[in-house]
Task: inverse folding
């Protein structure tokens, strides 16, 4: 399972996943989408909550995951909603690390 894996160090010579690899890993996640911004594929999900405080608490959990994995997403915190976007900045694309961290976000939500 993806959420049991650890991120590996990703350097500039790492190879981004191709579309087929992305789609294969996407099948292991729930409600995540691959979107493109500026030609860079990114993995994104919107989580919904009953209020701001619950959304804020989840944002903090995502931040803890990011620090543990040394891989950092974009997190948009709004009232009742958190949008999490993962991509590997160094390779300007998606790496297995992004899918690992996405799975860890879902696990953090389910463990709450």
Result:
């Amino acid at each position: 399972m993806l959420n049991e894996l650890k991120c590996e160090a990703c350097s500039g010579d790492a190879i981004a996943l191709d579309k087929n690899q992305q789609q294969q890993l996407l099948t292991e996640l729930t409600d995540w989408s691959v979107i493109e911004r500026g030609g860079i594929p990114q993995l994104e999900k919107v989580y919904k909550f009953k209020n701001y405080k619950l959304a804020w608490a989840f944002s903090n959990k995502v931040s803890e995951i990011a620090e543990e994995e040394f891989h950092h997403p974009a997190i948009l915190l709004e009232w009742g909603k958190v949008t999490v976007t993962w991509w590997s900045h160094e390779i300007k694309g998606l790496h297995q690390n992004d899918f690992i961290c996405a799975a860890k976000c879902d696990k953090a939500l389910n463990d709450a």
Summary: Strands lie at 33-37, 40-48, 74-78, 81-86. Helices lie at 19-26, 52-69, 96-111. The chain has a mean pLDDT of 93. The chain has three helices and four strands.
